[in-house]
Amino acid sequence: xxxxxxxxxxxxxxxxxxxxxxxxxxxxxxxxxxxxxxxxxxxxxxxxxxxxxxxxxxxxxxxxxxxxxxxxxxxxxxxxxxxxxxxxxxxxxxxxxxxxxxxxxxxxxxxxxxxxxxxxxxxxxxxxxxxxxxxxxxxxxxxxxxxxxxxxxxxxxxxxxxxxxxxxxxxxxxxxxxxxxxxxxxxxxxxxxxxxxxxxxxxxxxxxxxxxxxxxxxxxxxxxxxxxxxxxxxxxxxxxxxxxxxxxxxxxxxxxxxxxxxxxxxxxxxxxxxxxxxxxxxxxxxxxxxxxxxxxxxxxxxxxxxxxxxxxxxxx
Length: 316
Description:
Elements (H helix, E strand, L loop, with lengths): L1 H5 L2 E7 L5 H10 L6 E2 L3 E6 L2 E7 L12 H11 L4 E7 L3 H12 L5 E6 L7 E3 L1 H8 L3 E4 L7 H12 L14 H14 L9 H10 L2 H11 L7 H16 L4 H23 E3 L1 H40 L1
Parallel strand pairs: 1-4, 1-5, 5-6, 6-8
Antiparallel strand pairs: 2-3, 3-4, 7-9
Helix pairs in contact: 4-11, 7-8, 7-10
């Protein structure tokens, strides 16, 4: 137990392109703490008597439909050990960011979501309390360029990494057929593979039958893993059931993508408010001020006109 408490905690930083992830990385290791040691994609920081290793993973938009660096990020999340994953979401690209967060939540509950950017500058309001309830993981608002919110982020990472709080991520519901296929496949993995990661995402990828993922899966759990009777039997049963329902690979992938997109949009609608009323109010205030200014000028002009008329009359 003592060795566990003393070991360096590992934190992953993930996000879409232009999410501000790199700026958050700099803030965490070089601004929040004097003990700053930086490499190209790794850094260290110290918080509440503990050492943390921060790993800035390559930018990615998805973990299910992968190419290039996406495969590396997916495999790291699925097969490596870490204490917390932070998903950085650009406030101006909220739906795509939430889509990535939902995919990460299918893999691990050790997660914090960071909303990067200024709501006021983007003319929106974010209900972080509602967002936390919809996701089932802590949500922090921060502005990378100013460093605002970084201390709260470090605190939430500390709570998750030390299991002081245990998240209950809200996973995406696909259709009934896919959900049952995931259940059967995950059931085949139970007791046959050792991992803290969710069997649900592993099952999702095995049903997708992606050759790159299958290779990584075998490399991690053993080259003969697919020879296991329970896993092989349940996986084949699930695949056959989907085929009998007319759900081939293309339809399977489309159903998953659509479900994630719909979930992301529903979260946006529930947690984001556009400040249209504020804009109207400001416009109305400006017009009202202009109206009174013009009225005052007109009144002054009229008074001046009367004074001139009275003066001319008295002179005559």
